Amino acid sequence: MTWSDPPISLSYRAVGETDHIYAVLRHAASTLDETAPILISFYDRPRLPVVARFVIKESMPARSKTHPTPRLSKAQYELLAAFRYQLRQFLHFSELAAQNAGLTPRQHQALLAIRGFPKRESVTIGELAEQLHIAHHSAVGLVDRSVKQNLVVRQPGTEDRRQVYIKLTNHGSKVLEQLAGAHRDEIRRLGPRLKLLLNSLMRDQNSIHPKKTANRRSKRSARR
Q1: What is the pTM of this model?
Q2: Which terminus of the chain, N or C, has fewer Cβ atoms within 10 Å?
């Protein structure tokens, strides 16, 4: 397939921040063949397909013709499936815990993102949207609903009062603290199994690409 051929067309809803748009494009690029022309359209951004072609062409992972990716064995697929299952177990627990606390899973994620933001305990709408990988207008709606539930409050910035920050209320902090404790307990329960699977996956990856592993080790030794 050449660049004159009809493009593969992918469609995404608007994702807000420009950096996140590029992240979506790079993700799409990593999942498609490097020789295929790709046209990614955003519903409210008609000029993006032109950008998409450039970004995807630049970010396509190089594939070695002399060292093709080895086929996975049945045991390797089982290992990946087991790891994915354990991750899904944790995510399912998290969703149920949030619902039992009277929150949506995304509200819980928002509270955690605000409380855990580096060196601050408040965020702007744009920062929250980036943390949650959602569109700006979706973050606004999320904050509106959370304000009504007395989970967060909007506050003007101290240096620039035109800038609005989102901060947890006392009620929001208490709800998050309860959820955080429950999640830490669940991590302690699932942790050993996840750690075992992750170690197995890493050992398996090293056995597939021994030269890359050896190169990384030699670089670390040189830095020391």
Answers
A1: 0.61
A2: C
